[in-house]
Amino acid sequence: MRKVKQLQERVAVSDLRAAADVIIKNGRIVNVFSGEIMEGDIAIKSGYIVGIGDFDEAAEIIDAKGQYIVPGFIDAHVHVESAMVPPSEFARVLLPNGVTTIVTDPHEIANVAGAKGIEFMLADAAETPLDMYVMLPSSVPATPFEHNGATLEASDLRALYQHEKVIGLAEVMDFPSVASGKTDILQKIVDAEKHGGRIDGHGAGLSKADLNNYLAVGIRTDHESTTAMEAMDRLRAGMFVMLREGTVGRDMIHTLPAVNPKNSHRFCFCTDDKLIDDLLEEGSINYNVRLAIANKIDPVMAIQMATINAATCHKLPHLGAVAAGYQADILFLRDLETVTITKVMKRGEVVVDDGIREESLFKKQDSNFESPAILHTLKLEDLKLEIAGTAANIIGMQPNSLFTEHLVEPITVQNGEFQVSVKDDQLKMVVVERHKGTGCVGVGIVKGFGIRHGAIATTVAHDSHNIVAVGSSDADIMLAIEHITKIGGGIAVVDNGKVAANLALPIAGLLSTQPYEEIQHQLDHLNDAFRGVSAKQGFDPFLTLSFLTLPVIPNLKLTDQGLFDFNVFGFIEVGV
């Protein structure tokens, strides 16, 4: 909340009656409104830009030495939990990549722990320079077709709108409930609008006619476009379109052709789900910007998409520009082609200089989060998959895509039970309910992981976050599941009866308590272990597996209740 005295102080500096806190000189300013490159001194007072022009008096003067000055980047839609670290640690990764603001949907931890999980994320984020704005989860549980750990109805969300960082309702995934006019989801939308919030969409697989249902109830964004035509359908319907480049959802190459100078103001960037190792190797939104430029998008246009467009999309009028009245979130770029960041300022304070963080600004709360117990009643016989025929519906995993193929293939059956075929890459996949000890176990067949011997398992399984595993033998699958249960949640690779690598995620089975550097080391070990059991490369096996349980994205998925076909929006038998 702005105060009169603060505004008076800003005006005094802009009117040259008082000294600034910081002045940036000799920079080439990217004007995201006009598309021009400008010159001028940037005066900053109390974390805000108060003027661009001729300024001399300040406590600190920074010489930009001809570098480009651009606004801090904004990730328009991200799930922090997918990086397997809490927000305070996430900030240590993002700020050196020029991301000064994120808009997040904490529905991963909410599906495990409900409102307490959201409150934990907000409290942890408050300890860092990064601005984390929260869109409240709209679909907890995501669908009625699986068991999760918590339920958040409209009445459970209302109190959270009082938090200054809560700005709307997150991706509405339950399209059938919207289309049929279900009261609870529509009440959540009404409540978000009442508090001035934006409502995010989740239009995976939706037709142009389906989008009308979304627009009719006030949903105005979507991040699920996988082709340029889908992006254009959403644009023509009046949506803001978020172009996604994450660990699994790598869609920008296919969607960028939809962008042109006439419509670019309706596009912004997001990562959605991106693991620590990819964030460290590629970057975050800075990678989206570089990728856009490499694919013939004008550099200034790409910067607009990463800044002012995202701020406009989410009704954040104080962010996204280097101009008077805007928060002083500023990046120094060596050039506009490689987007090489040399300095990052947050609220007028240098937080990263030549890649070095000012660590004193990054605090981390002691994690006193009471993580829910991981419960299951799994027995080896629960892993049997009985099939009467000799053919089956098989989940066809597609590398670097959230979508799957619906395959129908002949299979090997002995004594009425499916037999894994390493030769045909037909592996057993298992989803075990872990929140309430229901004993529900879904068993199916997946193709694409190429596991020759062994298994992988994880408690990161979107969105209900049950246990999911895939492997070449029941014994190895069982061992992997038992191991991640023993360590309180996480990821494990088993190779011929031995645990080859693991990563513990003791916060809700989703987040680590370790520094990201240690997580990176353990992820490297996990990837090495996967290479030891599989012939397939070029994709992230763990996040890919975690999305094979999400029934709101086409085509076939597996939940703890069975094999789900998105196209009929219901369960089908594995056997044909």
UniProtKB/TrEMBL annotation:
InterPro entries documented for this protein: Adenine_deam (IPR006679), Adenine_deam_C (IPR026912), Amidohydro-rel (IPR006680), Metal-dep_hydrolase_composite (IPR011059), Metal_Hydrolase (IPR032466)
Entry annotated with the keyword Manganese: yes
EC number: 3.5.4.2
Residues spanning the membrane: none
CDD domains: AdeC (cd01295)
Family: Belongs to the metallo-dependent hydrolases superfamily. Adenine deaminase family.
Entry protein name: Adenine deaminase
Recorded name of the encoding gene: ade
